[in-house]
């Protein structure tokens, strides 16, 4: 065994007992609810939580997915597939955040208003199914990020068992491996509204522009990327830096520009910094507060 390999193996032996304790605590916490509806997007966090809820509660657990124009159609298909793999009951809740002026105005607290709408609709489905609580997949790492949606979690009395058990994103990836869930390396998939620059109004047309632009790139092998919408119908493409060279292929570049313009974009730009999750938050001013 090489000298460099030894520390990694030692670290795994140290971490695993702690992770097992957190996993068991999570299952016990979920059992204490009696029954549970998981806010289920099909991402890493909510998929691990749905699996844990099913292990702990069986038929007394359900995965609820909020569906609206803000959700890319491929994400719903993925959520349905993952729920079938887990075996958990899967229900759809139709949300209508586009009817909310505070959401469409797209200020820095946009996610708060979206989550309030989501949890309201999920709670209605949970009540219909006779489920005691709604649980969100937020983990302990989320508490260090700018997430207005956490205030909606608090106000709606939604449970956050992953955070309560102090599970980190890295530990959730290990649990996904342990439970053979194919989401270990799944890129984050926030709603399409997050692609619209703060201050630019969110409309169904702009959401569809972004969804179609990202579908074009996904169909051509870009697994991790974002198409950001900026004022004046400008598309800003973020892709991993090791894939930026692909955009300099003349045929691909011409095909991309023609397609994006057919969607309604007037200008198409490539961000040379590459993909950064949450890059729109760099536009925010400090001192945002959500009124109580």
Characterization of the model:
- The chain has helices spanning 5-33, 44-57, 73-86, 101-104, 110-129, 149-155, 161-164, 169-178, 204-219, 250-263; strands at residues 36-39, 61-67, 89-94, 133-135, 226-230, 234-238, 267-270.
- The chain is α/β, with parallel strands linked by helices and 292 residues long.
- The strands form two sheets. The chain has a four-stranded parallel beta sheet with strand order 3-2-1-4. Strands 5-6-7 form a three-stranded mixed beta sheet, covered by helices on one side.
- Helix 2 links the parallel strand 1 and strand 2.
Distance between the terminal alpha carbons, to the nearest Å?
Answer: 58 Å
Helix content: 40-55%
Topology, number of strands: 7
**Strand-residue fraction?**
5-15%
Cα-atom Rg, whole angstroms?
20 Å
Structural class: alpha/beta
Keywords:
three-stranded mixed β-sheet; Rossmann fold; alpha/beta; GMP Synthetase, Chain A, domain 3; about 290 residues
